[in-house]
From TrEMBL, chain A:
It comes from the Bacteria. The lineage of its organism: Bacteria, Pseudomonadati, Pseudomonadota, Alphaproteobacteria, Hyphomicrobiales. GO terms for biological process: response to oxidative stress. The keyword tRNA processing does not apply. This is NADH:ubiquinone oxidoreductase subunit. Keywords: Ubiquinone. GO terms for cellular component: respiratory chain complex I. It comes from Hyphomicrobium facile. Residues 116-132 have a biased composition (Basic and acidic residues). Residues 92-132 are annotated as: Disordered. InterPro entries: NDUFA12. The keyword Nuclease does not apply.
UniProtKB/TrEMBL annotation, chain B:
The keyword NAD applies. It comes from the Bacteria. It comes from Hyphomicrobium facile. This is NADH-quinone oxidoreductase. Its EC number is 7.1.1.-. GO terms for cellular component: membrane. It catalyses: a quinone + NADH + 5 H(+)(in) = a quinol + NAD(+) + 4 H(+)(out). Its cofactor is [4Fe-4S] cluster; [2Fe-2S] cluster.
Length: 132, 698
């Protein structure tokens, strides 16, 4: 995210307003494995009557990038930040994945014309004779 | 004598011997039933058809009660029968409640759902709910072969299947054991049922106890569209309905046609449907350097037309196969005649039938319905059980209903009814023809004698002599009898044969027959779905075109393959063995690039420089009806006088004494569609293993 695009665009990542606000009032509490940085208001309260909590994404601002543990902290479900939590991930827990809709990696159901073109079997199918 | 009744306040008069159920139906009442079936014996065990007869203390099972057996009223007034009184309603509800006590509530997963008599009648005549809280009974699964799926917990013991197997199919393989709650329908040794007609028992089952295994859980009845069409697996031309979902025929069921198949069809007719979806030719192929390469229609037809134009007319030959419709045979004959070729043959098995001897010489003249009037039947060189299973059960029906003398000349086989075995070959036939055999007297004494000649007798070098002998027997036996009765019956095995003979798809002047066409001096051979012929003698330099539906024997030798349409994919005319012209209906489209057969020949004719003068099926049929008007009379058979056989009888050659050989080695594998069907392959293997077991036991 270049400085110019941060000044002149608001649709890609965080804006210069957020940057100033973070510099002025934010205190970083942690960072997750995806590079998302989490902040809490240094003094005073936010619109909810408690110190505001927010996240700054490394690139595109897309809320599904927040993993579930930080999601809990961010939404005031818990007050302990995940790095202080004595919770260990189970081996069967999959790593968090952001929503890929709208990207080339989006999920395509079987038979979708954007997918591999393989469709489920149908009772109308026939087996053609092939010369050998 | 007529008997008078008052049914639901309506006075009616019925013949003696009528059942009370039939009398009520004549009066317009609807009587529910499970065990009663018009074509089976009366069992009277489901009790669903109870009606109230005034004066009788208890309701009466109307299916088993003859009107004669009703006691007369004291004052001689007609008996009053009620089918809608509170007593009847209560009786029906009671019967239905008892039936449902042990019937599982699995309609949502039952294949019969939507076409189930029990469902329908429970809705119409049952109670709203159940008062039963105890456990339901469960019955052990039975294995009765690859065609019939059982779920015997659903059985309501109507015994229709048992009666069908015993009475119509003639194999005593199903039975009811136990009593009361422990009653079960089973095969005696839990073995697969080995009858060509077994799957009809599933149609008869009013519940989902017997369902069709090959299409289990594939479709629901309300999803399918029904096309009323004609079967081509044998020459009987059974009426069938092809049920279609999407682009596929999901199932084939019989239609009621008293004149042809009543309401039965053979297992091959019914379960060949999966063969329509395997091994299909769906694009043209051209053989280049010994290998088939996919080609466009333009290339393939262009090549065939070029070869056709280059070949001298006397070296062009065409053979029509067993499943060819009349339309394509007519178009092909028309095309080749215009090119001057006369070597055509529709008798790929080498039958010695000749249309020049009159139509009566190659038809089942008595008609299939006529079997029920015959009182002496001589079967010559045929195994009707395999060659025309439905027709064989008609003979069995005749044998059950009245004393009929049946005799066989040919290979000794199990026909599902007893017969007198006379001999193996033409010598016995000659003895009968010369009046030296006692059976000649039996035929003479019979009022409607019948001789059924099978392919085993006439598909050999001296076939015409054997036919001539049979015609002599018929003429001698029917002298001085009803002139409208023609007892000479040719039993065909191929659906296309009669139409081919009607169209004159036989060698013309100077033309060669099937054996000649497939000989070493042909240069251009057109196989119209011909697979059951020996292609090994065709010279390697000859150009062979195969037009057909499945990759089978014919494609192995072909140089060009033109994909055609199967019988469910085109409207085509087929004439059955009794000379009844019937049309199939186009239920689905041919697969891929395949086309309806007559259009292929029409397109070829244009490229060959002799454009055929018809652009639509209607125009083609108009032209066809001009040359063969008998094809226009759909679903009728004309009376063919027995005098039409005199030319045939006068031929008078002496056949060799070699015994008549069986024609069908494997009932389930007689044509390309059946050979592609996995179900038919399974049945064939089952029968082979059963025969192996039998011979090991001996």
């Amino acid at each position: 995210m270049g400085l110019l695009s941060e000044i002149f665009s608001w649709w890609g990542g965080n804006t210069w307003g957020t940057r100033l606000f973070t510099l002025r009032k934010g205190k970083q509490v942690g960072q997750d494995e995806f590079g998302n940085r989490y902040f809490v208001q240094k003094s005073g309260v936010g619109p909810l009557g408690v110190p505001a909590r927010w996240v700054i994404y490394p690139k595109l601002s897309e809320a599904s990038q927040v993993p579930p543990d930080w999601h809990g902290w961010l939404h005031y479900t818990v007050d302990t930040i995940p790095t202080d939590e004595r919770y260990h991930r189970r081996p069967w827990q999959k790593p968090h994945q952001a929503n890929l809709t709208g990207t080339p990696l989006a999920y395509r159901p079987k038979g979708s014309i954007l997918g591999k073109g393989e469709r489920a079997k149908s009772t109308s199918d026939y087996k053609a004779w092939k010369p050998h | 004598m007529a008997k008078q009744l008052i049914v639901d306040g309506k006075p009616i008069e019925v013949e003696d011997g009528t059942t009370l159920m039939h009398a009520c139906e004549l009066a317009g009442a609807v009587i529910p039933r499970f065990c009663y079936h018009e074509r089976l014996s009366i069992a009277g065990n489901c009790r669903m058809c109870l009606v109230e007869v005034e004066g009788s203390p208890k309701p009466v099972a109307s299916c088993a009660m003859l009107v004669n057996d009703l006691p007369p009223n004291r004052d001689g007034s007609p008996k009053v029968v009620n089918t809608a009184s509170p007593m009847v309603k209560k009786a029906r509800e009671g019967v239905m409640e008892f039936l449902l006590i042990n019937h599982p509530l699995d309609c949502p997963i039952c294949d019969q759902g939507g076409e189930c008599d029990l469902q329908d009648q429970a809705m119409a005549f049952g109670m709203g709910g159940s008062r039963y809280t105890e456990n339901k009974r469960a019955v052990e699964e039975k294995h009765i072969g690859p065609l019939i799926k059982t779920m015997m917990t659903r059985c309501i013991h109507c015994t229709r299947c048992v009666r069908y197997m015993t009475e119509v199919a003639g194999v005593e393989e199903l039975g009811l054991i136990g009593r009361g709650e422990d009653a079960e329908i089973t095969t005696y040794l839990e073995q697969g049922i080995l009858s060509e007609m077994s799957a009809n028992a599933v149609d008869l089952c009013p519940v989902g106890a017997l369902t069709h295994r090959p299409w289990a859980f594939a479709a629901r009845p309300w999803e399918m569209e029904t096309f009323e069409t004609i079967d081509v697996m044998d020459a009987v031309g059974s009426s069938i309905s092809a049920d279609v979902r999407g682009a596929a025929v999901m199932r084939i069921l019989p239609r009621n046609n008293d004149a042809v198949n009543e309401e039965w069809i053979s297992d091959k007719t019914r379960h060949v449907a999966d063969g329509l979806k395997t091994q299909r030719l769906d694009q043209p192929y051209i053989r280049k350097n010994g290998r088939f390469e996919p080609a466009s229609w333009d290339e393939a037809l262009g090549l065939v037309a070029a070869k056709l134009k280059a070949a001298p007319a006397e070296k062009i030959g065409a053979i029509a196969g067993d499943l060819a419709g009349a339309e394509e045979m007519f178009a092909l004959k028309d095309l080749l005649t215009r090119l001057g070729a006369t070597s055509l043959d529709c008798r790929q098995a080498g039958d010695k039938l000749d249309p020049k001897l009159g139509r009566a010489s190659y038809l089942f003249n008595s008609g299939i319905e006529g079997i029920e009037e015959a009182d002496a039947i001589l079967i010559v060189g045929a195994n009707p059980r395999l060659e025309a299973a439905v027709l064989n059960s008609r003979i069995r029906k005749r044998w059950r209903s009245a004393p009929t003398k049946i005799a066989l000349v040919g290979t000794k086989v199990d026909l599902a009814y007893p017969y007198e075995y006379l001999g193996a070959g033409p010598d016995t036939l000659a003895e009968i023809a010369n009046g030296k055999h006692p059976f000649a007297e039996v035929l003479k004494a019979a009022s409607k004698p019948m001789v059924i000649v099978g392919q085993g007798a006439f598909a050999r070098a001296d076939g015409l002599a054997a036919l001539s002998l049979a015609a002599r027997i018929v003429l001698a036996a029917s002298a001085g009898k009803d002139a409208a009765w023609n007892g000479f019956n040719v039993l065909h095995t191929a659906a296309a044969r009669v139409a081919g003979l009607d169209l004159g798809f036989v060698p013309g002047k100077g033309g060669k027959d099937a054996a000649g066409i497939l000989g070493p001096d042909s240069e251009f051979v057109y196989l119209l779905g011909a697979d059951e012929c020996d292609l090994s003698k065709v010279s390697p330099s000859a150009f062979v075109v195969y037009q057909g539906t499945h990759g089978d024997k014919g494609t192995e030798r072909a140089d060009v393959i033109l994909p055609g349409a199967a019988y469910t994919e085109k409207s085509a005319t087929f004439v059955n063995t009794e000379g009844r012209a019937q049309q199939t209906l186009k239920a689905v489209f041919p697969p891929g690039d395949a086309k309806e057969d007559w259009t292929i020949i029409r397109a070829l004719s244009e490229r060959a420089g002799t454009k055929l003068p018809y652009d639509s099926l209607k125009e083609l049929r108009a032209a066809m009806y001009r040359t063969s008007p008998q094809l226009a009379a759909l679903d009728t058979i004309e009376v063919r006088a027995v005098s039409g056989l005199e030319t045939l009888a006068k031929l008078g050659a002496q056949p060799s004494s070699a015994p008549f050989a069986p024609v069908i080695a494997d009932f389930y594998m007689t044509n390309p569609i059946a050979r592609s069907s996995a179900v038919m392959a399974g049945m064939s293997a089952l029968r082979a293993s059963h025969q192996q077991k039998l011979s090991a036991a001996e």
